[in-house]
Structure prediction request, 160 residues.
Amino acid sequence: MELSDQERLIEKLKRIEALFADRAATTGEKAAAGEARDRIRERLEKLPEPAVEYTFALRNPWSHRLFVALLRRYNIRPYRYPRQRRTTIMAKVPPRFVNETLWPQFVELDRTLASYLTEQTNRVISESINKDTSDVEVRSGQALPATTTLEGGGDFQASV
Prediction:
């Protein structure tokens, strides 16, 4: 039976987590992700150093959601203070855990997820809007000073 793109992505994310739990995962292991999570939680609880308050700023909404989910997976409660941006994530975590496990694991998971989302976005655009999904051409010269700028990402803002 052939796995769908989404199922392959989920399997890859589970293997990444198993990797950060210092354990090689084989394809046939169904409980690998759960066991890896438990090992990481145990290691986190055994760290002798106290938790330090960290500020994480993740502007990409997908990366933000992924990081919050990763924190919660390890029973770390993400929060933010009043007047902090929605993109800010605060968490109390031992520095060694951040440096050796949490952040490297997040970077690898984020890279994998971003690659998948880019592939899927390009496929959907290619099939529904235009087959050419290449980047824009780079022209020599400079933009005119009175050029209008529109910024996307949900809230569109125009400036002249």
DSSP finds four helices and four strands in the chain. The longest helix spans residues 95-128. Residues 156-160 have pLDDT under 50 and may be disordered.
